[in-house]
Specification:
Spore germination protein; alpha+beta; five-stranded antiparallel beta sheet
Length: 507
């Protein structure tokens, strides 16, 4: 079949020229191929020796545009050629072509095809795409009390509009790449010329271009395929639904990309400390924001270590428990038949089951399951003598602390890390926790994001970037962009001028 032969030629990088004798037959063969689908429509606008044929996929086109602005003009007596159509039809984005790949792509993307004469080698493509997307709404995952209330949606054009409105500069560069043999998904890479390091942009473009996959449904597909270490539990890109955050990090010299059909933007390179910084921190006073960041850092450490330390102490290290507290622990465990490790695993798995059930059920039902299930299971397990009330408090606090992370992906990592620490605590006590901690740190030291160190500014130590890491200093102290992004222009503003404050009083 000629259409198949042409497809393989294009796939192998061979181009069919306009004067190729295969084109007449291939255009018609493409039409015959598309006709096998019931939603592909053919309309004969004019009969005669050279009939005017109109083809389109009706779910993809705007029917009002077709009925009001295209078909009435095609029925005029003055229409005899494709050039007449270009002059007469009052719409934009018309293209006359005989390239089969272009025709196929445009028709399957929502364009209408007009052919004059069944054996014509050229057709005209009229853009009439139906835009079905939801309205811009407030962020659900990264909600903030103060600050903008807009979130990305599944339309790439709308998402680019949200970013460009915040960065109305000609230096903002958008480069589109198509990925996926079946889905043909558009990916837009965003950067600011003169600020963003070109090496970061080229690295991201190369990794996306090297992707070999048949379908891309969401941005998470791309993230998993281009990560520096695909086997690491730690996320190496920040996933955000806030256009204001994308605009802010582009100004810092980072690179981001948006995927058509995904309501999230992806940011890189990133570091571990950035996952514990909420974007709302930048809308608050620096003292308040720094206090909240320190609370989150403590909550993460507490969430990972509190249950393993409980197991380690009760299994091997009774001597380090204060006498007053030892009596409470002995009383709480007096009738518990299970060793501390089984007691902890039971409660941890119960918490994880409640989390998953609450996340997968509808919102109102999920909230009820989480609250009622937690109370019922916790109370019943203590009364039945399966767990101690002290451990129940620790596990509940650890679960609560894990929710303080502002980025969802790092929250999942914390949930996962708790279990290897728990097993190591049971095997070797506090020594096992120390060994597990060393394994995690060695992994983090080797980890990178777009080739940049993941533990920066801790390692390699960079004092400048500590101004916006565990604490956030005032804006007047952050005159330089982060070192980790290796920007072309390192200065944000003149620090000396920023410190000058003039007060004018009318007398």
């Amino acid at each position: 079949m000629i259409f198949k032969n042409l497809f393989f030629k294009q796939k192998n990088g061979l181009k069919t020229h306009k004067n190729s004798p295969e084109i007449d037959e291939t255009v018609q063969d493409l039409i015959d191929q598309l006709k096998k689908s019931d939603d592909f429509k053919e309309v004969t606008v004019k009969e005669g020796l050279k009939p005017l044929k109109f083809y389109y996929f009706h779910p993809l086109v705007d029917k009002k545009l077709v009925q009001n602005d295209i078909l009435p003009y095609l029925q005029e007596e003055s229409i005899h050629s494709l050039e007449d159509i270009k002059r007469s039809v009052p719409i934009e984005n018309m293209e006359v072509t005989n390239d089969i790949a272009t025709i196929q792509h445009q028709v399957l993307s929502g364009s209408c095809m007009v052919q004059i004469g069944e054996k014509s080698s050229e057709v005209i493509l009229l853009r009439a795409v139906k835009n079905n997307h939801r309205d811009v709404n407030i962020p659900e995952v990264e909600f903030s009390v103060v600050g903008p209330k807009e979130a990305f949606i599944e339309s790439l054009d709308v998402n680019l509009n949200l970013v460009r409105r915040r960065l109305p500069i000609p230096e903002l560069r958008v480069e589109e790449i198509t990925v996926g043999k079946i889905t043909k998904t558009k990916i837009a890479i965003l950067s600011i010329e003169g600020i963003t390091n070109k090496e970061n942009v080229n690295t991201l473009k190369q990794r996306i271009n090297d992707i070999e996959i048949d379908s891309v449904i969401d941005s998470s597909y791309i993230v998993q395929l281009i990560s520096d270490n695909q086997h690491s539990p730690f996320p190496q890109f920040i996933d955000t639904e806030r256009p204001d955050r994308i605009a802010a990090v582009l100004g810092e010299g980072k690179v981001a990309f948006l995927v058509d059909g995904a309501p999230h933007g992806i940011i890189g390179p990133t570091t571990l400390v950035e996952f514990f910084s909420a974007f709302e921190d930048y809308f608050l006073n620096w003292l308040t924001a720094s206090f909240f960041r320190l609370i989150r850092s403590f909550a993460v450490v507490f969430s990972i270590l509190v249950t393993p330390i409980y197991v380690a102490v009760l299994t091997y290290h009774y001597e380090i428990i204060p006498k007053d507290l030892l009596g409470i622990l002995v009383t709480s465990r007096r009738e518990i038949p299970l060793p501390p490790i089984l007691e902890a695993i039971f409660l941890e798995l119960a918490i994880e089951l409640l989390r998953e059930a609450g996340a997968r059920l509808p919102t109102k039902v999920g909230q009820t399951i989480g609250i009622v299930g937690g109370i019922v299971i916790g109370t019943a397990s203590v009364e039945a003598g399966l767990t101690s009330n002290v451990l129940l408090i620790f596990v509940a606090l650890a679960a609560l602390a894990s929710f303080t992370t502002p980025v969802y992906q790092i929250g999942n990592t914390i949930r996962l890390l708790r279990f290897p620490f728990l097993f190591m605590a049971h095997i070797w006590g506090l020594l096992g926790i120390s060994i597990c901690f060393c394994f995690v740190m060695s992994h983090l030291l080797r980890l990178s994001s777009l080739g940049r160190p993941y533990l920066e500014p801790i390692y390699p130590p960079r004092v400048q970037d500590l101004k916006d890491a565990f604490i956030r200093l005032p804006w007047s102290r952050q005159s330089k962009r982060p070192v980790e992004a290796q920007t072309q222009d390192t200065m944000r503003f003149n620090q000396k001028k920023a410190k000058k404050k003039k007060t004018e009083v009318d007398e």
